[in-house]
Design goal:
mainly alpha; 2 helices
């Protein structure tokens, strides 16, 4: 069969070589009137070759359609996967933004708490200083009070001692003298 195809090809080339010059306005190739007539076997072989070529072109076309359908299905799945991935990315970005807002809020609250703690420590330190000052004053007042109490006790003892001496002197003066 390929021998017949080769022979037809050679015959066609020879025929084209002997053809009249083409008319550029018509764009038609005219073959000479002296084309050899092919035998019935050659025509049958040529028809079989044409039929085989048509069948092969149909198989190729079918494979091309199947490949195109497969490619479209793969592309469709890829597009769907990209859409799903994009939605998930958007969800994750929204979650990240929410968490960043929480973190920023926590940072602000932590700074405020640190400032409040610093202020409270300063007030606590001031209160401790005042307590120490009051304690020192109290100790000083207590010492003064103890000195005052001791002075009062001494004064009382002195007064009592003087009253006691006076009473004794008065008692001696009131007693008759012993003769």
């Amino acid at each position: 069969m390929s021998h017949n195809l080769a022979r037809i090809h050679v015959d066609l080339q020879n025929t084209i070589g002997k053809s009249d010059s083409p008319n550029p306005a018509e764009r038609v190739l005219r073959f000479p009137s002296s084309i050899p007539v092919a035998g019935a076997g050659d025509i049958k072989a040529a028809i079989e070759l044409v039929n085989e070529a048509i069948a092969e072109m149909r198989r190729i076309e079918k494979r091309a359609q199947e490949t195109e359908q497969y490619a479209q299905a793969v592309a469709g799945k890829a597009v769907e996967s990209l859409r799903i991935a994009d939605e998930r990315i958007q969800q994750l970005e929204a979650e990240r933004n929410t968490w960043e807002a929480y973190i920023n809020q926590a940072i602000v609250m932590t700074r405020e708490a640190a400032s409040a703690l610093t202020a409270e420590r300063a007030r606590f330190d001031d209160a401790e200083d005042k307590i120490r000052q009051f304690a020192a004053r109290f100790e000083a007042f207590e010492a003064i009070a103890n000195e005052g109490t001791n002075a009062i006790v001494r004064l009382k003892d002195e007064i009592l001692a003087q009253f006691s001496r006076r009473d004794t002197e008065l008692k001696y003066k009131e007693l008759p003298a012993a003769e």
